[in-house]
Amino acid sequence: MRIDVISLFPDFIQTAAAVGVVGRAQQRGLMQVTAWNPRDFTHDNYRRVDERTFGGGPGMVMSTQPLRECLAAVRGASAERTHVVYLSPQGARLTQARVRELAVLPRLTLLCGRYEGIDERLLEQEVDEELSIGDYVLSGGELAATVVIDAVGRLQAGALNDEASALEDSFETGLLDCPHYTRPEVDAQGSTVPAILLSGDHGAIARWRRQQALGRTWLRRPDLLARVSLSAEDRRLLDAFRRHYLAPSKDDPTA
Ligand code: ADE
Prior knowledge:
alpha/beta, five-stranded parallel sheet
């Protein structure tokens, strides 16, 4: 997959894409992240990319010409058509389902705004989709673009060392993930690990994990729980979790 990012801070994008899973995916040749600076497509001595907003008011707006020429160069960098995404708080909220769809595209272009945003005409003419990473305002699209690159990058085949673990991640199942533990069995504060995880009973461990995922989603994200269809076994596990949560006893809730 090829991802091009249009940003006034190309070094930030390249640095973020050089570490961790995405950095490794690039080294393995599974994806390529290229940053483009619209300032390189200006024609004036000041390399100006912004102008005052028509109609008055505070703040500056990114003007169409440098972005249009930058986008033309991006589109021409490879024969494949690219899907152009503008990151902004006005976009549709990014979900794991949308990430999965974006991850199978051969090309993606992420357009980052600064200041008050980008001249609406450029967005209408050049952008296929507007995405937001959450209901809060960032000072530019760069952090959001790196979020998209990471979420999409880790889904490239061969990017993760353990592909199976990705399938159990939060949201992939429609539920939050279960808790995880590692050595030591008793930590420095005397806190122990749930005994079932040390039992070696793989069936019981799988049931416990499913129950924890269901229970956590019920506690923390009831909106998600309302959207997944639960099996009879899921209902039984969740009922036991709820009973245990509402009236804690020493009994194992995995009844
Ligand atoms: N740019 C500024 N805020 C943003 C957000 N919440 N999501 C995506 N891009 C943004």
